[in-house]
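During the no-cost extension, the postdoctoral fellow (Dr. R.K.) reprocessed legacy sequence entries with the updated structure-token encoder. One reprocessed record is reproduced below for audit purposes.
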Amino acid sequence: MRKIYMAGMSHKVAEIAIREKFYIPMDVKTEALTHSPFDELLILATCNRTEVYVASDREITDGELVRYVCGLARQDYDDFAKFFYFKSGDDVAHHVMNVCAGLDSVAMGEDQILHQIGRAYETAHQLNATGNTLNKLFQSAIHTTKRIKTETNLSKLSCNIPFLAMKQVQKTFDDLENRTVYIVGLGEMGSLMLKYVQENTTKIFASSKTFANAEKFADVLTPVKFEDRYEVLGKCDVVILCSACQEPIVTKDEFVKAVQVADSIDVPSKRLVVDLANPRNAEASIGELPGVEYVCVDDLEKIVSENRRLRMIELDAAQKILKEGLDEFLHWNRMDEVSKQIHLHAEKMLTTANEESEKLLRSMPELSEDDRHRIQMMYERFAKKMANDFLYKVKAENSPEDVQVFLKCLNSKSPRN
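Re-encoded structure tokens follow.
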């Protein structure tokens, strides 16, 4: 029977300094999915979690899967194994449902994780890394999450990471309309951040590794070349970092120089740097500078309680839908294995019927070809009718557990006299 497994780390068990070491670039993911050592594989990597999901016909141990993840991230197993969690069987399905619905996120019910899981699944599926089991699991999780977002108000109480970041900005500056904001990185996170910023100020600068990406938003902001970022960030009240870079793009030394140049003009004495990237875009030590407040993803968890009370009201309804989705998948998973066994028994019955018809026909060599064919068809029809009446009907009208008992009885041999 094909079983599901997962290993990973998240914001619940590892701080960002650990998690960012397990950032898995797209080229590494693509290579891993293309040459997977498992029957089925899916890799999920976000700013808050790195998780690997596997479906396998052989048993997978926690050590094997955690070592595999460490290998992808080029990190030492002995140093980081303690930060991982490992799940198997039904626990994996329960975990996926919770993660996809945003119930395991920093901001409960946040929407972004659904898109991230959707992309991770689409990538693995396109590379033929997933099969029947992971396809059904992630399709069920995505469908269940969409039901939760449609049938409850959980997602209407916006509490995604950019939203929390905006709350932090508003907490630091209550007069944001007169403040200048600089966004570095205009991917999914940065674009969503821009929408929130636009609602509060028109004084916006932005950079992207590809300047053309920043120019696309020229009607609502001032594009800045990535290499010129230090010329701008020292002059801004708020700097929001969302760039997918492996190394820090804002160092303490260069930041100090930028601030010193800017301070010779009329610039803010208080600055907020919001680092939403993983790995972090800035050296955290810039928060030690006078007048500089540095906030990373982990810090945002401290303000999530503002929306938690309202979200708890909707949580019961969401969990009921989640349980329905989970039960449906678990039933499918158990019945899928039963279906395979039923099919094997049906094939065995048909093979036996063909063998018996051959024995009969060998004893009747005088029969014509038409008669021989009719006898063979009669045996086959009888075998298929027996399979339908005693296998497929039993499967359709009983639980997977009861069908397994029935199949066990079929497999048992009668005692010898």
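The chain has a mean pLDDT of 86. The CA atoms of residues 181 and 238 lie 5 Å apart. The remaining legacy entries will be reprocessed before the final report is submitted.
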